[in-house]
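Usage example:
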Amino acid sequence: MPNEPLPDDIRHVWQNQPVENTPMPLEEIRRKARQFEKRISRRNLREYIAGAAGIVIFTVYLFIFPNPVARTGSALIIAGGLCVLFQLYKRATPGTLPEDLGLTASLEFHRRELVRQRDLLRSVWLWYIGPFVPGIVVFGMGVRPRHGTASWWNAVPFLCISGVIVWLNYRAARGLDRQVAEIENLENPS
Amino acid sequence: MTTLVVEGSEDDRYREAAAAYGAALERLARAYEADPDHRRDLLQEIHLALWRSFAGWDARCSLRTWVYRVAHNAATSHVIRQRRMNSHLLVSLEELDRMPDPSSPDAGHQEALSRLLTLVQRLKPLDRQVILSYLEGMDAAAIGEITGLGPANVATKIHRIKKILTHAFHQGGRHAE
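Running the assembly step on the lines above writes:
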């Protein structure tokens, strides 16, 4: 192959591709940073409002439902909601990248990000879905007592959907685990 | 490639880094993101991360290493967030090496670049980082410093990259000229 391009030629192609290279003014960067922080604050606020709305609804139920089982369920759901809101507040991420990006080699950064995501997927059911389970089951047992159909079966759809979510999360976590293992093999070749 | 010594405020450091590596960062964003709108977002994200990162600058490594680490890490985070890191869609250098050649005969500069981008965008993040660093003209030591890979791993990967690139472009003539 007389005309075979050497990799150096390909480097040349790469390095000489047309780029705009328009400098980003510092004021624009600062504006983006402020915009970004506002977006994260709005996202957090939306989650708190949604949580608070749920708590308000079940607080009303607490007073209007005559059935003590449904009222107990409402109280448990409120407690679950408060628990989730506290967890959201505690775990709230700033949404920005860590400041040690320049100190962390890309292999380690990649591993850290995957591990963070994997752990989040594995634990989300415990603090995001789990706190609502007792309340939903008890509430389901109390909502239709007059027809004789009241039972924990009312909570089955919720439990099924939760089960599917947990299963999907664990499956995704296993995929991430494989990627973490690949990186760890590169970091510590045997 | 020269290694700059940067002193001064975070803003000054950022300005110097952007002036020296702005074009390289644009090429890097292009290698990570095929969609033009997302690419623009990614590039802004990289610049933002770079500006922020200088708050922690301690001159322990060269500016070039710093800039590339920040850029690759920000881009990797972007890819993870966009949920495009599905491992069955991205391939490693080893897998790419075993695949049949793309059969596109003569190409020319633009076509060569487009094929190169397609090839790079298919790679898993780490292999993408190595091949990009190689294409930017870095040596094995610099690639190791940015990625954290050991010298033996870098050497093996560079060997594969050269083989793949030579293989992938062997039908196209001297595109670069």
